[in-house]
Amino acid sequence: MFIHGTGLLQYSDFVMQYQKYFEVQAFSMATSKLLILLSLQVIFLVFANGQGLKVGFYRKSCPTVEAIVKKTVDEAMSKAPTLAAPLLRMHFHDCFVRGCDGSVLLNSSTNQAEKDAPPNLSLRGYQIVDNAKSAVEKSCPGVVSCADILALVARDATFALKGPFWKVETGRRDGRVSSFNEALSNLLPPFANITTLKQGFQQKGLSAKDLVVLSGGHTIGTSHCSSFTNRLYNFTGKGDTDPSLDPNYIAKLKIKCKPNDQNTLVEMDPGSFKTFDEKYYTLVTKRRGLFESDAALLADSQTMAYVKLQATTHGSSFFKDFGVSMVKMGRIGVLTGSAGEIRKVCARVN
Prior knowledge:
two-stranded antiparallel sheet; 4 strands; about 5% strand; globular; secreted
């Protein structure tokens, strides 16, 4: 649901990456499943409620942090507003792998970090996070985590595109581990059905409402054709199209996306992909969401009801709901207190 595009990978290659991961892991998972579940439960109980986070955590130690980050983001958005969507998604992807600990920002000399995994190859805007971190370090050295800066950047990038503004809880610490395989196993793919989506969110302590609300982030940004061309040309392996996608929209998409197109970008919310608004929900009701995960929202009574509500009331509660769900997501698996570290440079551990 969070994967707007898959970089230069073909859809089939993307699916194979996921399948290969799970095939390789099958044996070890069979023998250690219980231990993993117990470990996850412990981690969830200790960290998932966001204990230690609060609005204004740096009020005394770095009172200008939010102003510094906002200035950096505003300057970047004035020049490259299309970076807002990847920055928002970067925060999503960070939180869904090892919790909101800035691990998506870490580099790997062997290309085995989260950012090297297929779902993250199309993330952009790392330099904006780095610039914000550098500016904050000049004012408050060694105080503010990269995880918190990323959370603030995501909020400010959303607001810069006329989206909602919410109070960001801070106090996160940075993780020291970033795993390619963990990104593959935790990030939900664009071809996920409603059962997979709801389970994936539930595992992170998020609800079906959070799922449909945060899906609204697809109102901004673009996607590579390779993330959805299977819906246009070979949905079930028989050269067919996805029946859940509007046939007229399929015809338009086929003009832009040829069968093996890996590079063309398509607006996710045509006509307003640089403006954060509620029009995504109108598209979904018209069966014009780009991804299978968008269409899946109509396969569940609760998520479908929310989609139709926002589409018919011009997003009456969407902005407020989005802020609430972003705060909830920002609490996933956080490191606080003496756990983790405060990185000096976001791309590497101290």
